[in-house]
Amino acid sequence: MPSSEQSMFSKIALSAVSILSSNLRHLLSFLMQFVPGLKNSLPSPSKEQFTLPTLQCISPLLQTVEETPEPIPAKIKGHIPKWINGNLLRNGPGKFEFGEEKYNHWFDGMALLHQFQLRNGTVTYQSKFLQSNSYLMNNQHNRIVVSEFGTLAMPDPCKSVFARFMSRFDPPKPSDNANVSCVVYKGDYYVTGENNCMYKVDPETLEMKEKVDWTKFVAVNGATAHPHYAPDGTAYNMGNSYGKFGTTYNIIEVPPQKSNCNETLEGAKVLCSIAPMDSMKPSYYHSFGMSENYIIFIEQPIKLNLLRIITSKFRGKPISEGINWEPQYNTRFHVVDKRTGKVLPGQWYTKPFVTFHQINAFEDHGCVVLDLCCQDDGKTLAVYKLQNMRKSGADLDQIFGSVARAFPRRFVLPLNVNSDTPVGKDLNPLSYTMARAVKDSDDKVWCTHENLHPDGFEDFGGLEFPQINYSQYSGRRYRYFYGCGFRHFIGDSLMKVDVETKNFKIWQEDGSYPSEPVFVPVPNATAEDSGVILSVVISPDENRSAFLLVLDAETFRELGRAEVPVQMPYGFHGIFSSR
User: Fold this and answer.
1) Would you say 357 is a known binding-site residue?
2) What pTM value is reported for the model?
3) Domain holding 282: CATH number?
4) Nearest Cα to Cα of residue 201 among 103, 102, 132, 116
């Protein structure tokens, strides 16, 4: 038989086997519903048996892409409401190697800034790599010369063996790769990571304006990428400081306005400092909660082993190797009064969990109600290595199966607890939540969460990247939040959750991966969910365009999409800049 005919025959045979296999699986599934005992009588698959993959390979969404420095028009399908006028700014990793050297972790990639500009029903797109010092130095040497979270920069191969060894004792170059989020201080837009430096950018052009170092204004070694904002524009953030007196967690306050046009973080101050349970093993945190009058800091058992981090370069290890999940410690809530800068004396604890993103916090009847996305296992950071995320088939299924899912939960922290407070009694006075708070004999308050989701929510992979109608409902009692469902390493659906009924709505499309939802309110709206959800949707299929999705936030139905013929990697966080 000629080789061309053999090839055609092989394709037909493989196709037939695939169809038969699929039909057989559906037939068995159907029979198991009606034939008692059939499921138990079927042999259990052994490790050697072939298992059809269930997860799509997303490796194309975790690769280096080209920037799009000049705006290009998007193709509109459906309609984009004309009242939406502004820029959706997004941030995330977009370059994963320099020369022959490759990054190890998803968090390491160089920052690529994206902008979707919406004007009177039209949309344009552009993207630019942040010209950080780390990016420029790596580019100049055509190799990785600045270490990142999960990648240790190797010594210059042109140096002698002795010089390469001695370079391990040199202080590491701090990275300024601001690839996590877009934030606002004093009306200016910045891109930021979790290190000392941010970059001020022009939201209209994505041009970098200025590098700003937190340490020049306040005694902290970096800050989170998730500040909170008071109604008057005052910004609050958190950052650690490391000194001769040990480690402290610090609440930072940044004034809302400039006294002159050249200001950046002038006037920032440390509002409050909190001592960790172990000064050599402070907790890692990605965000914090804020109600109208209080800051809520969650001290969780993901620990920064400072000795291991300080010696990581000498030991030939990346910084990520110094972060450990230590579930022998419970999670503690610290509550700080924003008005006085004082830490409240109460001690609130719960079982060990990990949170990266808070949903909202508000006050009611002498309590702080805190909603956040929680995982019961803190090993997630170690799993998000690029070699894991780029796997396919059964290998991908197996590694993703080890990732803890995040679920929305509610805690109630009663603030007025003293020596007269009865022991063993539930101190939650709120009828609309089943969360519990019970004082123990040692004066600690043990908090038990309420799930903010219905049974079966696990089938959608849990929820992360939560967002609310922030401008109107941050720090207030609210009803709706939005997020990404995670049945993969990255978001594969969008959700709207009603915290009162626990019902949810979902948007999903096969082979599509939406970004963090951003809520944009209708001007002068009174209803909480009167607005739209913006999300950037990408696909590993090179024949499908990326697009900006616009959903009606109330009905969660698609209004329109703006397609652009551009390859985009999956990013982290963003913000809408209105005009």
Assistant:
1) yes
2) 0.88
3) 2.140.10
4) 132
